[in-house]
Amino acid sequence: MKVSQKKSAFIIASFVVVQLIFLLFIKYSNQSLSLRDFSLANLGNIFNLVISVILISGIVTALKREKVTIKPLIIFTIITSLTLCLAFLSTLVRFPGSSFYIVGQPGDKVFDAFLFTIYEFLLFTFISYVWLKVFNSNKHVVLRSLANGVFLLMLFLLVTFIFIQTKGYNSACWKLSKNKKNIIVVLGAAVWSDNKPSPSLSSRVDEAIKLYNDGYGGKIILTGSNAPGEMSEAEVAYNYAKSRGMDMNNVEYETITTSTIEQVNFIKRNLLQRSDIADIIVVSDSYHLMRVLEVSEFFKTRIKVAAAKTSMDFQENLYRQLRESIVLNVFWSFAL
Questions:
Q1: Could you give all domains of the chain from N- to C-terminal order, each with its CATH number?
Q2: Per-residue pLDDT tens for 115-140?
Q3: How far apart are the first and last CA of the chain?
Q4: Less packed terminus of the chain by CB within 10 Å, N or C?
């Protein structure tokens, strides 16, 4: 490798490393954490690191073998860097859109996720371009790189979907012990018209009541804010629990959190450090619990989980799991 190529490889690789550090900073600052909370135990962080290593090794190999000119690499580096900066700025500005939902997520959050996904697509395209050059593929290389970028995004989504299906996450999280010092936390779900709980919300409350009656916990905490014009998810869940004959002296609720991330953060800030609590048992739908566990791992929050017995037909179940795969994918990559 010539001296000029070595210098170029070092500079471009350095920009990739800076992008990685900046991305990790964004992930943790989004959740009011610092890089001191970084952990390789988080699958999303491992993914970020692996992608950067693959890209850097491709850049070094391509330049060493003189398979690629510097200019395209510089262009890719500039485009990916600007896209990441734009995505970061979108998290700092509150755009109109928080009042409406797309696939169950606030519109402004969907917009943020879209910009970050564009960054991820461009990063995959960059990787594909470099490695196509390494293997002497010069025909329609840009178009093939773009197509491969889409393919890699879909492949990552497929891997996420399979991960959710396997439920292979730390089996100890699913093993519950009877103890009145346990706290059962019910994650919020949709509220239907006339402030009625959706089947998902009612089944979560039913599971919490069953766990309480069977001695797996001594208190239930209901979580979830509200959409405009309706009661909060937690209040609707509270009323439903009361109608089911639950001892309301042992039920509390909060109406501030609006997402899974905020609810896990609520657990970390308000419950985890209490000495009078044994285990924290989080109740949600089975397809949702993998993300709950991943978020809790990111926040270094120890929880156990229990799946609500929500009745869904095949089509609805498939839709919810595909949606969950997308949301978990975005969380792994960007902690959104």
A1: 3-166 (no CATH), 171-311 (3.40.50.620)
A2: 999 999 999 999 999 999 998 877 89
A3: 41
A4: N
